[in-house]
Amino acid sequence: MADDREDFSLLPVGGQHVRGLSTALCSMDPWLAMKYSREAVEFYLLQADQALSRHVVMISGQVAGVLAVRGPWLFGPLIELMALFDGYRSRGVGKKIVEWTAQRCEAKNLWVTVSSDNFRAQKFYERQGFRKTALLEDLIKPGWDEILLRKRIARP
Length: 156
Prior knowledge:
Helix content is 27%, strand content 31%.
């Protein structure tokens, strides 16, 4: 579990972090299995896109992962990318990211897609209150299915 004394923050992705983030992402699944190039990931992290906010996940001054949130989307933001690096998984950081994202949106929905073979991520999102909404067959490329998950956010 995450130590509440750890300093959790999200910073805008900047040029100083892009090489390290892209190298780390390309060395882990699903990006490794799909053979993403470092250049393609760098382009994604830096491209001009007003609907996409990209953040470096920081824990106690160390780069712990990356978050990209697209909004507006289907009546709520879409967590388009959330990746935590080795040493930061299973410590409560992902839960903090989901809570942070939900608190900052004014919508009643929070969305995420997860690879159909990523059972660990599916269980994580289900524990955070997400429910399966649809199977998106061959979304990224043939044979790569994604599951669309939705979390309803109670608003007063």
